[in-house]
Amino acid sequence: MSIASAFLALLRRDLVIAFRRRSEMVNPLLFFVLVTSLFPLGVGSQPKLLALMAPGVVWVAALLAALLSLDTIFRSDFEDGTLEQLLLSAQPVSVLVIAKVLAHWLITGLPLLLMAPLLGTFLGLPSQAIGTLVLSLLFGTPALSLIGAIGVALTVGLRKGGVILSLLVLPLYVPILIFGAGAVGNAAMGIDATAQMYIMAAFLIFSLTLSPVATAAALRVSLS
Amino acid sequence: MFGNFFHKMASPPWFYRISGKLIPWVGAICALLLLYGLYGALVLAPADYQQGDSFRIIYIHVPAAWMSLFIYVLMAVCGVITLVWRMKMAEVVLITSAPIGAAFTFLALVTGSLWGKPMWGTWWVWDGRLTSELILLFLYLGVIALHNAIEDRQTAAKAVAILAIVGVVNVPIIHYSVEWWSTLHQGPTITKLDKPSIHIDMLIPLLVMALAFKLYYVVAMLMRARVELLERERNSKWAKEMLGEL
After folding, report:
1. Interface contact flag, B162 A178, Cβ < 8 Å
2. What is the number of domains present in chain A?
3. What ipTM was assigned to the predicted interfaces of this complex?
4. Residue A218: which of B141, B162, B167 has the nearest Cβ?
């Protein structure tokens, strides 16, 4: 079996499993919508204030939704033993990790992208910034999944990994949040956001290169 | 010769013996430096022409901030040694350093906040450096929490080693993105004091204090490492001998 066919087989398997449990797919999306709609209730409904806060609010909500769904990357595979078989396979674990993270992002990250323009509009984000919002999430959410995978791999063997996972992962999310929300904020003010976009893309490439290796090492430690 | 030293360092009984001899000496030098540094800082150094006496907190604040970064990098180096050469001592140093580093980070944050009150007029400013120091504290707490959560010590050490390496790759990225963010968002002009060419009478106590802090870290780390070693090796012959059980 070649690396490419192993990659595709694992990707297809994860997507099929997710599709059979469609209700779980909806949870992060619902969470995203709920958290975003809490902000106007908390800070008041002045349109100016909301429009000013919209980039940050949408980005923080997307980040929390991504965090909430992280645990599903490896949890069920760990519990039924599939993960051990993956580690025993002849293929490089880091490539298999990319397949699993990609499947996870397609299931949980992509819907956020589709929902974000709607939520941005609810909060009064100017329409010229909507495109930047989607693009920044397109670069940012896969990086969130990739970085988060390291944390999940470290905590997958623990019974109460959830709280620790957020402590491990959230500090590492800071740069992505800064540049993601910053890009949208710039676009909302009518300033060019190309620079931030390049940096977001660089983060994505950087995490795509390094995080699978770290995740594979962490999985080996957790399953030893 | 260096290889031999490296090999010996890896042996817990040897480390235990040598560190026991080192601690009083290093501790004494540290105490002397601390006394001189504090005297220089509080008495000898002239008051700042702008900040008056309140600048003197720099002698705690800056060394603590330096140590907070230094210890994290050291932990990552130990993490690499743990994963590549499987050296037990590196595991011990990595794990025992984390709480000390967190304490220094906390100290830097508290003193920064105390200093901010007379200088900036508020206890907390979302200034680039303060914020990245806060995130560094979270990174330390993550290391400690992960280590406490995993019961098997060997597994815990390896997991923490990976986390420390991932963290140290991210520290510069976090630092610069936070600085970039705060300089972009700065609405009111916070007069961040330009680095003045510091007077030599002010500089010497600062360097002495930095050295004293470093030695304090060495002493604290060695003491914690000895306890950790005894706990890990409590069933081995040398540990029982040390504890007088044999």
Report:
1. no
2. 1
3. 0.89
4. B162
